[in-house]
Structures are given as structure tokens and as C-alpha cells.
Design a protein that fits this description.
Blueprint lengths: L10 H14 L3 H15 L8 H4 L11 H22 L6 H13 L4 H18 L6 H20 L6
Helix pairs in contact: 1-4, 1-7, 2-4, 2-6, 4-7, 5-7, 6-7
Amino acid sequence: MDSEGKVVFTEEQEALVVKSWSVMKKNSADLGLKLFIKIFEIAPTTKKLFSFLRDSPIPAEQNPKLKPHAMSVFVMCCESAVQLRKAGKVTVKETTLKRLGANHSKYGVVDEHFEVTKYALLETIKEAVPEMWSPEMKSAWGQAYDHLVAAIKAEMKPSP
């Protein structure tokens, strides 16, 4: 962030994010599902954070509620990254951020969950666009994700 509180995201970072998102966008449902499968492989207990997975006898990857949820999360992460430089801030609607903050707080999401998700997101993107992947792209996506998480955490209220 600069002295005025605006996010610093360079043109180069924006170009890397925009270019890779334009390739991934058409597969966002499958990539979102891959993202969540990776999260569950790394941290199996995270399945318990989702009411529709908690007591379900269906494997997570076959649960009909997971794919739409996963796609919306993946698209939100990517769209917010694409808008970051132009807007100078995370551009998820304020009402959505408040809901995300409240839900993440209510379901017991902690810093480690955000870190696992970041790792899984970067791995998912790396596998989706291997010919484009570079340390610079990893850094751009990582920074964009960090800004989104900071915006969500700012809306997380400690439970009473």
C-alpha cells in the first residue's frame, strides 16, 4: 500500500494476472474444483468448515454443492486480482466482503486456512497455465490474493 492507502500493484503484475486469467476463465468451474480438492488434500479437516460437506456420505469432489461454490471462490479471487491495479483496492462488493468476513469468522476460519488456500490457489494456477508460469507471475497472484484476504479479514469480527 502507498501512503494514501492505495494498493501498489504494478502494470507488469497486472499484465501477468490478466493474461493468465484470460486463459483460465473458460475453465473456472473445473479449476475452482481443483483448487478445493487441493485444499482438502493439504488440510483434510477443512471439509468440516462446509456444512454441505460435513456429514455428507458423498466424496467432496462429487458433492453437487461444491463445484458452484468452488467456482464462485475461484472467480472472485481472479476477478479481484484483475481489478487490483486499476481500482487501487480490492473490488469485491462491500456487502459481499461483510458477508465473507462474517461467514469466515462464524465457521472458524483461521490464518492457516488462508495460507493453505493461497498455496492451493498458486498451485492450481501454475498447473492451469504452465507455459506462462514464472516467479513474477507467482508473486503477482500471491500479492493479489494477500490483498483479498486482508479485505476479508478486516470484516471478520471476533466471535463473542
